[in-house]
Amino acid sequence: MNTFKLIKNLLKYDGETISLSNDFVTKDLAYFENFVKNLTILLIDLSKLSDKGYVNKPNVDLPILLWFLKELKLIKSNSVTNFSIGINTFFFNLVLLLLLNTVLNIEKHCLLKTSEEGYLDLKTDLSTIRKNLLRMIHPNFRDKVSNRGLSIILNSLVGYDSEYELNSSLRKTNDLLSIQLAGSTGLVLKVPLMDERPVTSNYLNSNLTDNFKGDEKKIGGIFCTSIEKVISDIRSVSCGDNDNFIKRLNLKLETLGLKSFVIDSYKVYLLPKSEVKSFIKYTNEYTSKDLITDSDSLNNVNNENSLLKIICILNEVCGIKELSSRMRNSIKNSSNKSLSRITYKYGVSRLSITINRILTICMHESAADLSMLKDFETFKENLDIVHRSFVTLGKPLILDGCKSKVHFRDTVLLAPAGVKSLAGVGSIYGDEFKKIDIGHYRGKMRELLEYNKDLFEKYAIQDSIITLKHASSMEDFYLSVNKIGVPLTLSSIGKSYVVKE
Questions:
Q1: Gap between the Cα atoms of 401 and 231, Å rounded
Q2: What is the pTM of this model?
Q3: 266 vs 148: CA distance, rounded Å
Q4: What is the model's pLDDT at position 358?
Q5: Angle between helices 216-238 and 85-111 (to 10 degrees)
Q6: In Å, how far are 47, 50, 77, 232, 406 from 94, measured between CA atoms?
Q7: Which of 117, 125, 253, 444 is the most exposed place for a label (fewest CB within 10 A)?
Q8: Angle in degrees, 0-180, between the axes of helices 2-10 and 64-71, rounded to the nearest 10
Q9: 3-state SS, residue 249
Q10: Residue 264: how many CB atoms within 10 A of its CB?
Q11: What separation, in Å, do the N-terminal and C-terminal C-alpha atoms of the chain show?
Q12: CA–CA distance, 13 with 71 (Å, rounded to integer)
């Protein structure tokens, strides 16, 4: 109990809120070192408590909340009130937040004296305590005080198709003639929104924190008001620069006329998709590794340019006129990794940027095109089957040597009833996306290649372009129901729409 007196000495109740009672700016190194020592011991005691404010070990009797409320004269000294889990949860997190605010203020004081002997070690100890406190705070409150960065998705979409000719109807084998790819890239920028919801009794979205009743109503109100105030204080100390920067960034992005959506706790901006690149390879042998490598490399330059555009926008917001060689290298490296992080420095502050590189390979009738892969029998074990189509469910594939996380989609699962064929899908988008008519050469692709290679290429590449177009359109529509990526099936879009409504 002695260590908990440290908290009591730090707290005061002014009739409205519970807050810190000390001004640490005037203290000296010896005071801070003693404080850190006591706080380290205190964290060990606090770790005995669950996030609901109760003692984890049943053989320990530690009525923390009742004792504190009596010490702060919020209840009578002879009270024996039993408090709910909800009220304990709020007080436990209020204490943690107040301690975090204390640590942040001391750290700020230490920054001014890092050159003085002893302060560097103190700063290291405080950093450890700060991280431990953040781990103990309820996730909903932790989100409110966290310095959230930007998230970028380098989003490549590729339509894949193959041309082949029947080798043996008896053995059901085909000879591969060519594969063709058509791809484009986009960039998704996720800018964090400030959580401006007021802290109320049901803020934690738990049955444990339903509206406080009876004697708890007044005390619960004090806790909620106190938590809001300390969160505001914490953000002003640790997040003030980033909050202002993100506000200015949003204003800049809005002037650019980019498409935007609000998804979860982010404002999502879309850079325009790049022009379509097409690619044809004449081969009688093709592997899954070839497919993924060719698809992944199709848009390397576009991915790098897209990331460069975002960094240039950030520089504009900050008033930085030149791109440093170090940042250029970071852009190049990050655009060629499946997952990376850039630390963007402006003034004395930093902004974390997380970058995911995603590749979605789309086919129409995936069973036919993937079966042309030499290693299909082994590769298909990495895929899932939905209505006889090969796709990836859940997490993407992460493969050695690939710069992206890879999803597979089949556009036949996204085709409306009555237009399941690729020709039908293409007709949805007008003459530009109609299948090429090859007349009597249908079923004679080797002959077409031999006598009219230009027509063969137009026909083959157009199939991959139609697949890409439909997948891209479905991806755009999916955003209207607050989802990112190419949906799996039409029914999955419907479910998301119902949830949104």
A1: 44
A2: 0.83
A3: 10
A4: 98
A5: 20
A6: 15, 14, 22, 13, 43
A7: 117
A8: 40
A9: helix
A10: 9
A11: 51
A12: 10
Q: For residue 86, with 0-12 CB atoms within 10 Å meaning exposed, 13-18 middle and 19 or more buried, which class applies?
A: buried
pLDDT for 8 equals: 73
Burial (Cβ within 10 Å: 0-12, 13-18, ≥19) of residue 260: middle
Residues 149 and 239: their CA atoms lie apart, in Å, by 11
Gap between the Cα atoms of 494 and 498, Å rounded = 6
Residue at token pair 């010490």: 71
Q: CA separation (Å) from 436 to 73, 433, 454? A: 83, 9, 12
Looking at residue 436, the DSSP 8-state letter turns out to be P
Handedness of CA 483, 489, 495, 497 (dihedral sign): positive
Structure tokens at 195: 């959580």
Looking at residue 262, its pLDDT comes to 92
Which residue spans within 405-490 are E strands per DSSP? 405-410
Tallying the residues shown for the chain, one arrives at 501
Query: Residues 288, 379: contact at Cβ < 8 Å?
Result: yes
Per-10-residue mean pLDDT of the chain, 501 residues long, equals 68 86 65 80 69 43 68 75 78 89 82 69 86 89 89 98 80 86 97 84 61 78 92 88 92 94 92 95 96 95 96 95 93 96 90 97 96 96 95 92 96 92 95 93 92 96 98 93 92 59 40
Q: What is the predicted pLDDT for the residue at 170?
A: 58
Structure-token pair, residue 89: 């949860």
Angstrom distance (rounded) from CA 159 to CA 465? 6
Calpha distance 190→431 (Å, rounded): 35
Cα–Cα distances in Å, from 52 out to 200, 247, 364? 16, 35, 52
